[in-house]
Known about the structure:
This protein is mainly β. It is built from 6 helices and 37 strands.
Amino acid sequence: MVSRVEHPAAGYRKIFETVEELNEPITTEIKGDVPSWLGGSLLRMGPGLFEVGDEPFHHLFDGYALIHKFDLKDGHVTYYRKYLKSDAYVRAMTEKRVVITEFGTTAYPDPCKNIFSRFFTYFRGIEVTDNCVVNIYPIGEDFYAVTETNYITKVDPDSLETLQRVDLSKYVSVNGVSAHPHRDADGTIYNIGNCFGKNMSLAYNIIKIPPAQTDKSDPFEKSQVLLQLPSSERLKPSYLHSFGMTDKYFVFVEQPVKINLVKFLTSWSIRGTNYMDCFESNETMGTWFHLAKKDPADYMSSHKFRTSAFNIFHHINTYEEQGFLVVDLCTWKGHDFVYNYLYMANVKAEWEQVKKAALRAPQPEVRRYVLPLDLHREEQGKNLVSLPYTTATAVLLRDGTIWLEPEVLFSGPRQAFEFPQINYSQCSGKKYSFVYGLGLNHFIPDRIVKLNVQTKQTWVWQEEECYPSEPLFVPRPGATEEDDGVLLSIVVKPGADRPGCLLVLDAGELTELARAEVDVMIPMTLHGTYKPGPGPSSQPGQDEVHV
Ligand code: 8D7
Ligand code: FE2
């Protein structure tokens, strides 16, 4: 599964170039057969505008959010896209400069304003970005574009119009939430966020948003903080990106990438600072796993799991078996923040520079950790993991902590298995076999991969000069096998006449079923959702939406 492909021509730079939104959906040219049961929409988010005038954005997460949609119906496919009309975007377009600070790009005060109005801007404090460039998913009956701040934005999944900005911190005590919530079968949403409390007491809060209300009332009004997890360090919460959930448990992996809160809350007003500048690495804490019961919600403070330092962005899946929690993760070994290297690789850079950054960065690995649920004091020093099929270990130490060692499910030098997706409706929180992902070759996405987490068998789809995105799994109606369905990915081939396409792969063998090509460039996308449509394929139980 390791890619030997090099990218000296640096064609990938084209997927980080500005494009225009479309006035109406455009038709696609189809090669192969799009299964007729695929009658929904692929919705994806990503950056689309990479500079404002001559001010460039500096990080992958800074470009203004573009909403992409491929509609599938009776074997036909159309493509549409619109910019998210966030405050960050609208104000930048009006004032022709970066007004709101983005993840790695600082906004500077308006040089045209006089000293008095600049003085007042200063005291207005931090304006947090609402550039929801990372993901789009349903809450209740609506769709929301999200990043990791307190702002999420309701969009119309048909017209892609921006409907309403929601400030989550008005409903629940969080300063931001992850772009990777979990969803129960009934539509209840669970998410995790940093909470920088009063008098700087910190916690990670798990929040719950109920499903669509029968009285049509706003689900946010009934949202609540379910439980708090403690921070390993005062004034320094860890950066969080996702978490694990089963029927009974939550797992949160606290990584050594820290937010320096003093910097975050003070140096912003002194200016010149952005989100990236507020991160630092804790070289000694290693990585902590926190466990909590779901119902009734309860933090399991006596289960102190520890292991050596790694970065964690994406949880793959978590399940319980024989008194153990199996936690599968996409990891990056080491305490240095991978986002710093992403910044150095600078997606607009030459291949040699990208390779150099990837060489120094933490190394990717798909790992399985196994957490014992029942602990007994007399078992000190022994490996507690008795699951027959894994080499992962957990040893109770004298100080009461449990030292974990993982089983490596996949590893390749500078070859990441990232943007993991599973058959969520069938397997989330349950024992499973397959994970699909995007293969990053020195950070450059150049293949779609499938991994059997039980046997470690891998499958690859790859094509020259092609840059795919996160593959989403869509089950075939009536399917019983876990991998009976298709994978949907947006693939970009910059040199081609029709440079963008929706790729439809058979999820079993990773063979191509169809592609629907467009004659416009499509920039890279991060995460998204398949929204099932109405129509014959939508039987009861089939109309769940995948987060
Ligand atoms: C995160 C802008 C942001 C996150 C220093 C505290 O989603 C992107 C990152 C990649 N997924 C993003 C863009 C801001 O802030 C943390 C950073 C805010 C926590 C309240
Ligand atoms: Fe993510």
